[in-house]
Amino acid sequence: IAHIYCEEVFGVVGENFTFPVKTDEKEGEVTWTKIFIITWTKNKDKVAEWEWRNKPKYFEHFHNRSVLMEDGSLTIINLKKNDAGTYELQYWDSERDHNLMFKLDVFDSFPEPKISCNSSGDNLALNCTADFQRPLNYSWKLSHDEHNSQSQNLSIPLEKVNHTMKATCIIKFSQIERSSEVSLIQCLP
Known about the structure:
Strand order of the largest sheet: 1-11-10-5-6-7
Protein name: LFA3 protein
Low-confidence stretches: 25-30
Organism: Dasyornis broadbenti (rufous bristle-bird)
CATH class of the largest domain: Mainly Beta
Shape: elongated
Helix content: under 10%
Number of domains: 2
Structural class: mainly beta
Subcellular location: Membrane
Number of helices: 0
Largest sheet: 6 strands, mixed
Distance between the termini: 66 Å
CATH architecture of the largest domain: Sandwich
Strand content: over 45%
CATH superfamily of the largest domain: Immunoglobulins
Keywords: Glycoprotein, Membrane, Signal
Number of strands: 18
């Protein structure tokens, strides 16, 4: 009996996308098993295959647009809208057959975040926004500081702001990440 694993994944047109393959996990550690045969399909049509000691073979429009690694991971280069679909990885190791399934959705674009700032009392208030059809993960990084925040908003005491400080807002969705930076000197009153 094969273990079926299904994950919803996302990419952006024009970018490279790698399926997040973990071939064997034990107590939080990834241990690689010797894989002998790998087959990837999209909507039941063959995409790529590899047999131990041979070079990978690619099919249809994935020829010259994908890279199959010996650990089973598949990277599609220069994603296209029609790459969306249900992908299945079947691999055989020395123990048994395995199946992993992924539903890939391809978005037209992924926005750069916009940063706005103003002073409010004794603090500098920063806000990061991005117009996207799915919920995003937001985080902040400050130069000269190891302060990281996992929020859309960031408040910094004015006495800690110096003329060389910069703030970077990072937005992330699936494997997609964008960032914008602002010099805090331009935010001061």
